[in-house]
Automatic annotation (TrEMBL):
The lineage of its organism: Eukaryota, Fungi, Dikarya, Ascomycota, Pezizomycotina. Keywords: Heme, Iron, Metal-binding, Monooxygenase, Oxidoreductase. This is Cytochrome P450. Heme binds at C421. The keyword Cell cycle does not apply.
Amino acid sequence: MPWSIWKAGYEPFEKAGQDSVFLATPKGNILWTCDPAIVKQLFTSHSFQLPVDLLKFYDIWGPTIGSVEGQEWKTHRKVVAYGFSSTPLPVVWQRTIHQTKTLVERWARDDYLVKSPRIWMSRVALHVIAGVFFNTEMNWKDTEEGGSDSQDKEYQSSLPNSILTIMLRLGVLFMTPTWLLGRLPFKATRETSQAFNDFTNYMLSIRSRVLENLDEVSSKRNKTMLESIVVAGNMDPTDPESKPLSKESVLGNIFFTMMAGHETVGNTLGFAILLLAIYPEIQTKVQQELDDVIGSRPKETWSLETDYTALQKGFLGAVINETLRLYHPVQFVPRTSIAETTLYDSAGKSHVVPPNTLFCVNYAAAFSNPATWTKVSVTADRRAELQHSRAIDFDPQRWLKPAETSDVPIHWPFGQGGRICPGKPMAQVEMIGVLTTLLKEYSIELVIPDQVLKETQGDRGKAWDHARDNAVRQLQESVEANLTIAMLKDLPIRLQRRSGGDHD
Ligand code: HEM
C-alpha cells in the first residue's frame, strides 16, 4: 500500500533477497526497485517516461510541467527553468531569514512553545514562495487568523489567503471538479471554490498586466516567478518553432511549482527540528559551526555567497542531507517503459523489460539499504524498544567522510536526470536559511510533559530520557504519506535563548 512504503523501508527487499521486485498484476506489470544502477537508468534513459495518465489530477487549471511528457514537457520545463533562473537566490536567502525572524517574534507570544513545528515550517516555506512568486508579503496574521479580507471589491479574499486555502485544501481540489465546488453545500468546498476563483482572477489580472507591458517586464533584472513564466511562455519572435503556453498552463505551472515547493521544504524542516531536539549534541555542533562562520555579525550581513556556501558544505548541510535521507518528502517516483528495454542492475546483470511496464523507484528502501548506509551502533533490544524508528540512525557525520567515487548516485532526494527538481537550489537555500536563523540565537528543546515529571518524581534527567524516547518513537509511528511524507502528530518543542548566541 502506498502509504506504508516509507514505513516498510528496505524490509520487503531484504525478504525478497534482491533490490528489485517484479509484480504481475491484472492491471499490468510493476517493478519496484531500489537498485541504484537501475534507478539511474529509469531517471536518465529516454526509454522511460513519467506515466502522465496517472497524474492528470494535477491539471486543475491546465497541463503543468508535472503532468506532461515529450516535446510538451520540454516547453514547460524551459519556461519554469527561466522562472527559477530569473529569481535570484540572494532574494530567497534574504526573504527566508526575514520570515524566520518574524516567526520567532510570533512564537514569543506563546512563550516560545511550538506545538506543531511542521505546520509552522510549511507556512514559512509558503511565505517565502509567495514573496518570490508574486512579490507579496505574507504575514503571520494572514496565515493564522485568516488575515484581512481583500481590500479590493472584485475579490472576496486576499491573495495570501487564497493561496493558503488552496494549499490547505489540495485533497478537495484534486477530488472535486472545479465547476462543482461552489455548488456543494459544504464549508470546505465553498471556501475552496472561493479561493480557486480569487486565485484564478488574481493570476489572470497579473498575467494581463505583464502582457500589456511585455517589453518593460522582459528587461527587468529581478522578475517574480509569475512574470518570468508569463514572459517565457509568450511566443519567442526569433524562434518560428516556439509555441506560446496557454493561460491555463501558466496558472497550472504556478500552482504546481508552489505546491511542489511548499510542503516538501516545510516537512523536511519539521523533521530536522525534531531530530535536532532529540540529539542536543548534534545541535550544539551546528551552533558551534554557526558561531565560527557567522560570528556576531547581524542578520543583514549574512551572505549567500560566503555564509550559505560554507554552511551548505559543512555540518549544517550534512544535517539536511541526513534528514532528507531518512525523511525524504517524496516516497516514490513512477516511470513507465515506452519500448522493450534492457536494464542493467548494480551487479552488472541484464534484464529485458517489456513496454508499458510501470516502475516505482522506492526511496525509503534505497536510502535505508544497510549495504549502503551503515546503521548506528544500537542493540537489537533497544531498537525494538524504540519501535525500530528511523530516527535512531540519524548520523549527519556520515556526510563529512570522503565519498567513494562512483558514477552511480546513491542519494537522490531531488531526483536525477532531465526531470531533476528545478527547485533544488531554492529548497537548499530556504532550509539552511531557516535553521541558521533559528539556531544562531536559540536552542530547540523537547517539551517534557508535567505528567512525565510527576512519574519520574521530578528527576529531570529521567524525564528527559522519557521525552526523547517518545519523540524517537513518534518519528516512526506518526509519520504518514499523502502527497509527501509528513509527521502528522503534534510533537511540541520550545525555543530557549542561547546564552552564547548573539541577538539582534
Ligand atoms: C526538500 C525539498 C524538495 C524535494 C525533496 C523535492 C523533490 C523533487 C523530486 C524527487 C522531483 C522529481 C520527480 C520525478 O523525477 O518525477 C521534483 C520535481 C519537481 N520539483 Fe521538487 N523537491 C523539493 C523542493 C522543491 C521546490 C522548493 C520547488 C519549487 C519552488 C520544487 C519544484 C519542483 C518541480 C516544478 C518539479 C517538476 C520537474 C519536472 O517534472 O520537470 N521542488 N522535486
